[in-house]
Amino acid sequence: MLRVAVLLSCFSVACLANSPVADTEKTQRKLSPGQSLTDKSPTIKARPAQIAVYKSVKQDGTALFSDRQPLNRPYQVMRFDCFACDPVSTVNWHTVPLYTKPYNRIIAKAADEHQLDPALIRAVIHAESSFRPQVVSKKGAVGLMQLMPQTASYLGVADPSHPEQNIIAGSRYLASLLKQHNSDLQLALAAYNAGASNVKKYNGVPPFAETQAYVERVAILHRRYQQAG
Length: 229
Known about the structure:
Layout: E1 4-7, H1 13-17, E2 53-57, E3 63-66, E4 76-79, H2 104-114, H3 118-129, H4 149-154, H5 163-180, H6 185-194, H7 196-202, H8 209-228
Parallel strand pairs: 1-3
Antiparallel strand pairs: 2-3, 2-4
């Protein structure tokens, strides 16, 4: 019988309210007219960090769930927020270490199949999941390119946590958004994050703090991956 132990270091009501398990709705904070991400405004004030949930299994079969990364045994990240989507992230996107080696064959295959820049695919994976194939977002997006269940189903993905299936399908989806938006990369990335309907509604990148942060950061990562070769 599989035994389960939960090792969460935070048990307060406020902590649980901000946990990825409790919060199932993705909120998009809207910027005021003329407001940028760098403006110091209560609209974009800092918030408590979201909790990642790590799963590991001990030798005796006990499953451990914790908000702290296990140090001495394999683990899976069960809940995770889009890596590049937090408007108040303290990550320096100009210096954060790049992932230039993982999934080279798969990314090259996806780029060739869908006429995409491999550096762009790598930048989106980095922004979405930080190259963690097993992550699941609060709203249910899965895997390296964070495919929503309905998108994965539409694209015929049997297992969205499988790296090759996820990258091939995510790249196909990204390519379709680029085609839909006449190769405008900013609009395609905004649609990838916020949905094509919101891009159409606002006739451009939506005034959501998360989406504007995402578009800006993917662009930075894209340039850096291009330079890295």
